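Hi team,

Filling in the usual template for the complex we talked about on Friday. All components are listed, including any nucleic acid strands or ligand strings, so the model treats them as one assembly.

SUBMITTER: L.P.
PURPOSE: interface mapping
COMPONENTS: two
RESIDUES: 1022
SEQUENCES:
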Amino acid sequence: MEFSRRHFLGAGSALAAAGLMSAAGQASAQTAKVPAKWDETVDFLIVGTGFAGLAAALEAHQIGIKNVLVIDKMPTPGGNSIINGGAVAAAGTDMQKKAGISDNPDLLYSDILRAGGGLAHPELARHIADESVENFYWLRDKIGVQFEAVTYHGGHSVKRSHSVTAHMGSGFINPMLAKCKEYNIPIQLRTYLEDIIEDDKGVVLGAKVRTGYRFPRANSGKVKYIRARNGVLLAAGGFAQNVTMRMSHDPRLTAAFGSTNQPGATGEALQDAQFLGANTVHMDWIQLGPWTSPDEQGFGKTPLLTEPLVGYGPMVDPANAKRFVQETGNRKVRADAIVAIGHPVVMYACAKNVFGQAVGKNMSKEMFDSLLKSGVVHEFKTLKDLAAFYKIPYDALVAENDKFNGYMKAMNDPQFHTKFFKDGVPNTEANGPFYAWRLWPRVHHCMGGLEINNKAQVLDARHNVIPGLFAAGEVTGGVHGMVRLGTVAVADCMIFGRTAARSAKAYKQPM
Amino acid sequence: MEFSRRHFLGAGSALAAAGLMSAAGQASAQTAKVPAKWDETVDFLIVGTGFAGLAAALEAHQIGIKNVLVIDKMPTPGGNSIINGGAVAAAGTDMQKKAGISDNPDLLYSDILRAGGGLAHPELARHIADESVENFYWLRDKIGVQFEAVTYHGGHSVKRSHSVTAHMGSGFINPMLAKCKEYNIPIQLRTYLEDIIEDDKGVVLGAKVRTGYRFPRANSGKVKYIRARNGVLLAAGGFAQNVTMRMSHDPRLTAAFGSTNQPGATGEALQDAQFLGANTVHMDWIQLGPWTSPDEQGFGKTPLLTEPLVGYGPMVDPANAKRFVQETGNRKVRADAIVAIGHPVVMYACAKNVFGQAVGKNMSKEMFDSLLKSGVVHEFKTLKDLAAFYKIPYDALVAENDKFNGYMKAMNDPQFHTKFFKDGVPNTEANGPFYAWRLWPRVHHCMGGLEINNKAQVLDARHNVIPGLFAAGEVTGGVHGMVRLGTVAVADCMIFGRTAARSAKAYKQPM
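RESULT (copied from the run log):
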């Protein structure tokens, strides 16, 4: 198959990250020194404006921390959280009860541990499980988040993902931002954390930042030293967009892979903490989404088409027309299989399946038309046209298509054990036309990060607490282990963000 | 099953490590400051006397580094290396050719990458593959290591493990120590690296050590500052014996698990480097050996009995008499299954299998008798006696034993897909007596560690080289990825140790 690099380079964000890294490469290998004079003094400095950072800021205000400052290097607030799916896990709420769902913290705890494959830190998972209900009520009753329904996500024992009416993360972030405004909590954008500053005993005093920072230009903006009397919270997210950093931990994740994340997910705050001796855990558990198209950017719309059609249409390697994986396998199984092939694969289904399962169901006709118009999805009258377009060997494709249809009919796939459904129809010209699209995984979530305890305090390599340093959300590791359950990360961010605020309140910096 | 903690506590080394950690927990969270006066100045300071440290010392001498000092915290030299299996991988030697084995560096490279599951750093694997033959000749022709045969280890494409006549790591270590003596390279034992010292630009200047150190007593011995003009090499091994540290990365590996390692494998040098901002990779890939007995210490002799008998006798959970895993599965599959059960399991086989496959083959009759005498292996005339001794439900065991024998006869195990062999006989009283022993995994090898480049320079969290800091061997990560191939770690230690010496020679410390 002729494969153009255009689609990789077109991603943009990966390149930006690569550019950023070479700039950061020139930075000092050391942390910044304590300044002769601080430009500003606050009580609690929060780095990041996603779920974790904003939850921490609001909690801090509510428990009486006076001078809270929230900074973010990007020009807009919300980080990855604002483009999140828009649901939070909670186990045992009144909303579940009303829907007839019986749930409790122990059940959530055991679900997290099971998904984590033995690597989740039990005391962190326990903390989330124990706080999830209170956190849900806090969001609804004290912050004003509007919830719509309790939904199901894979791996959970019961429906416990509380979705917001906005159907995306902005349904949390916007009310949280409004509350920050009401509380007069300053949110300073384009402000980059360049270094965390500690004294000669290893106590975190504050930070060196750059105001008026233009991402991703290293050394842009003006240096400012901020003293933080109750400590610094890192709530700066993951490193999915930092190619060099993710390749240290998983060399497969070259610039050939884009990310579903916002471009600022580049992990510098995590690196800054490492220079204080902070320990990192599970950094090599980097989750890829197998459902994205190389022909659109970010998360895109293709996942909404791909997911309802697994088990209805085949995925093939265009180089040889062969299927290569259980189409209904989990994210990791599918992503690893495509990565091993090394180039985008093709998925297709006939119109009867596409319109029976996806379009008009979880995807509107308008959205589907826009995918056709932008050339992400293509329509073909015949399998011959489809094969010609993607340069797939035609005879081999016919044979593979017949085989897939036969497996579907028998409801049994002896080759890859793909699961079929009763309402699937054979992918034939009679049931056509065919719709086809390419798939190439994107880096989606960093399971690993800074090691913390259940007070959101950052631990160093010798397992001591780093005084005055807190972390919450995707910048931390150990909460989920190998695999995270959908919507638990949202609870994780908020619960540990709020916990960090309480720990900061209790923290007395040695003078 | 009644399960006594005695066997866990009896391991001793885990406890020692735990004790050490609480002591280390009192240490400063910061690295030591540059002293007003150095007590001693050398050219190259090497921490560790295993394969990596000694290879580095010898190479350093041979290329003309004058003042080399090797230190080790333990009272005897050789680290884990001296108790290693005693073979080194090399791809394309005259010894292979003589044995009719065709091999080359590309084949070794691809074997390492395949075993690494995508996580091995290609440039590190390449370096080992490219240097393995020269390293073998160096060992044989310049150091005087005596080789016996080219043997096979699982996962390699061909026989390429060059075994020494001594049949264990001392076959390398002893000639290396003799050569150090000949070269007048001082090896200072009971000397503990307490901290690596860098200047305010992040350049490594030397180390703070404790001489006359009594492992594992923190703060024992006398503080001494050693300046190292050409840098410091960390060749201090892994952290399999450090319970707190390994639980950060894999919470399952509690003190309930012993280790096959020498007690000094506690990882402090790795932690010291983290305080300079050194990056760590793959720390959660900690390999367990599934073949050890809780009734003897360390690696022990049980693995030599267990391995030839997989596929001949069943492994059962004593709580319910059920088999639980493919007995012929790989190390990870078996260890994970036993860990999930949470208590030791029982393996047994009838005398005809035991004497047909193990005793008198890879294990002498004397060794087997010593296992019987020490109560590691027990002899039972009947299955009833066996069940009574291990408190296994008898009727269930009879049923399971019959089932296993049936699978064996049919050469097909529909339950766990265990592989059987033609010379296996049914485990019956007629083929008895039965021999039985318990299995409980031990922590065996830390795949992860400090990130290095192919010059053995340590990289920091921002992917810059830490000037003057080198690392080689098990203290590093990234070389092997998820799984290491047998005897490649030995080549890894020696090749990167020697590479570090060459890098130190080329290194000019900024004055």
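MY TAKE: The radius of gyration of chain B is 24 Å. Residues 1-29 of chain B have pLDDT under 50 and may be disordered.

Thanks, L.
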